[in-house]
Amino acid sequence: MDQQSPLLRQWILLRSLSARRYGATVREMAAETGVNDKTIRRDLQVFRDVGFPLEETLGDFGRKTWHLPSQWNQPAMSFTFDEAVALYLGRRFLEPLAGTYFWEAAQRAFKKIRACLGKPALDYLEKMAGTLHETNVGASDYSKKAEVIDHLMLGIEDAKAVHIAYQSLRATEPATVDVYPYGLIYHRGSLYLIAHSPEHNAVRHYKVDRIEQAEVSQFPFQRPEGFDIREHLTQSFGVFQGKGDVGVAIRFAPPVARYVQESKWHESQQLTKQKDGSLLAEFRLSDTEEIKRWIMSFGKHAVVVEPESLRAEIAGELTELLGQYQTVRPRAGDHSSARAPKRKRTPR
């Protein structure tokens, strides 16, 4: 067993202790997981520290075994029918972690739920599930990132520095950097690592898709007391984090006003309906990069009122885009450039 994967090893130990009626000795657990006795004792202490009701029994000839009591393993982990149904129907929302150890464990849990429900109930649930669909346009595929995500999670749980090989969007090749991982967030179909960068002495965001390798070091770090990821992202319109404090106002035309009004886009948003049917949206942000892309996705239906710098930036990009459309000609034989066929008149 890879000694750099304590989280996976501890999951295996918990499963083993739950399944063994008479428990297991430290030596048996060490042999099963391929580590030494000292490591197992440390894992058992971790279980106790987090509240797992481990019990130790002293048998013949001083043989000490460890086990999880059955009364903890059964009633506390049982589900009512509606709880099991809710978990089963929500399984698709774990798909971003497909291929990881967490996904594998979830699949085992869903397998147990399927066995308990039976085929008629499952057939009914599949029909019900068909009424709820989540689009995956632009969603990331993490089926080959199991080891990377596991090491990041270990670094977060154990408060250990992690060496990552990261290739930023503008870089031509990956660079190895050390980070102090604080947590993971899921944003628009992708996972992002929130971590302190000792090199920049600042909290930075790393897209997991761009992390090619990750390895947990033996160097501990002190997480800032009271640090909360949700609060950290309060002034971000997504995951872009800046150092400024910018007031942004956008006027949305009537055709999209209701769509914008239906959702909560940011904690600071103030939406004011105008007499002409348009909508004035105001935000307080630390950076305008991500909201700029959001504004431009509405095309002619969204116009920046302030700040002037953002208006000028978007106007510049639109001017450049218009120039490209005017200079780039369609390829020869491109049917999109052909004249549209005349519509046949319907006799009256």
Largest sheet: 5 strands, antiparallel
Using the coordinates above, name the CATH class of the largest domain.
Mainly Beta
Average pLDDT: 82
**Helix content class:** 25-40%
Cα gyration radius (Å) = 27 Å
Structural class: alpha+beta
Q: What is the CATH architecture term of the largest domain?
A: Roll
The general outline is: globular
Distance between the termini: 80 Å
Give the SSE order as H and E letters.
HHHEEHHHHHEEEEEHEHEEHEH
Counted beta strands = 11
| Widest beta sheet: strand line-up | 6-5-4-3-7
- Spans of at least 5 consecutive residues with low confidence: 72-76
Quick take:
This protein is an alpha+beta fold and 348 residues long. The chain is 37% helix and 22% strand. It has twelve helices and eleven strands.
Report on the structure:
With 348 residues, the chain is an alpha+beta fold. The protein folds into 4 domains: 6-73, Orthogonal Bundle (Arc Repressor Mutant, subunit A), CATH 1.10.10; 79-129, no CATH class; 146-227, SH3 type barrels; 246-325, Alpha-Beta Plaits, CATH 3.30.70. The chain is built from 12 helices and 11 strands. The strands form 3 sheets. The protein has a 5-stranded antiparallel sheet with strand order 6-5-4-3-7, covered by helices on one side. Helix 2 crosses helix 3 (37-49).
How is the topology of this model organized?
Elements: H1 6-19, H2 26-33, H3 37-49, E1 55-58, E2 64-67, H4 70-73, H5 81-89, H6 101-117, H7 119-129, H8 146-158, E3 160-166, E4 175-187, E5 190-197, E6 202-207, E7 211-220, H9 229-232, E8 246-252, H10 254-261, E9 270-273, E10 279-285, H11 289-296, E11 302-306, H12 308-327
Antiparallel strand pairs: 1-2, 3-4, 3-7, 4-5, 5-6, 8-10, 8-11, 9-10
Helix pairs in contact: 2-3, 5-6
